[in-house]
Amino acid sequence: MAIPPGVVSAARAGWRWQWRQLMQGLGPADSDGHYRRPAAAFSALPPLPATAAEPQSHVLIVGRSCPWAHRAWLVWTLRQLQDSIELLVVEPDPEAGRWRFNTPFLGCSTLQELYRRSGAAANQRATVPVLVDRSSGRVVLGESARLIELLNQWPAPMTAPDLAPPELRAQVGSWRDLFQGAVNDGVYRCGFARNQAAYDRAEGELFAALDEAEAALAMADAGPWLCGTHLTLADVQLFPTLIRLELVYAPLFGVSRRPLWQLPALWRWRQRMYGLPGVADTCCDQAWRHDYFGALFPLHPSGIVPAGPALVTLVQAPLQP
Questions:
Q1: What is the enclosing helix (H) or strand (E) of 94?
Q2: Model confidence over 258-286: pLDDT tens digits?
Q3: Are 40 and 119 in contact (CB under 8 A)?
Q4: Is the pTM higher than 0.90?
Q5: Is the Cα dihedral 142, 144, 150, 156 positive or negative?
Q6: By CB atoms within 10 Å of each CB, which of 20, 100, 156, 236 scores lowest?
């Protein structure tokens, strides 16, 4: 039996109202429909802990699907911090909307419990990444942009790179500021936009930033990295977003205007990043697709995880000279 047009219109209006309520819980927006990421708890950059050099004195908590945790995981890997900082992976609990430990950690079953014990407000979301002092059992830092700066200061083997050398700090900071708003948060501003105007603005800023990075990497005398010959926090900050682009953000968040292969310098840069020792182990493409498509109900109500390109096809094609 055909459904009368009036019923369809009424159902659509009802669904849009419900969608807006669900989206407000998923990601709050301002009055113009622009997504606004909630402030993180434990965001002040502390001094380097006195016990930083002690074996397993701290614990870095990450989630496989979270790009903000991915950047901290990358610095932990590149800086070879395995001896002083234990890596602990939490699992998502989409039904409860929280992160949980596979086995209790310091007496806590969920990350929310650890946040509360560390003094977070009752209404504060518990997010990854988190750095925890094992001796006190309290959170040291929980804001990813500051956390990667702290990890770059952490005592490390002589072979570990300095990802923000003094002579490059201004350039690194400029790239990081651009990526944080236009790219890292930009894909979410596209996916969580409440109206066309908000989406158009975010999508335009995203691809303008990628064009800027493409131009810098494509210069004839440019080094292999964003700041020349030296791998930096700028590269670390861009990678978690671009490695998820075709697998998650383009199909789910609607950022498919230009596939990355149309930005050849960025395509080759992404392959170089993936090829660095240990980086591939931080890339969990099946977890990304399962958690994004399966858990973001307002954006993908069916929960069906669609087929997508294999990560290997994106990162292991031969590099061009």
A1: none
A2: 999 999 999 999 999 999 999 999 999 99
A3: no
A4: yes
A5: positive
A6: 20
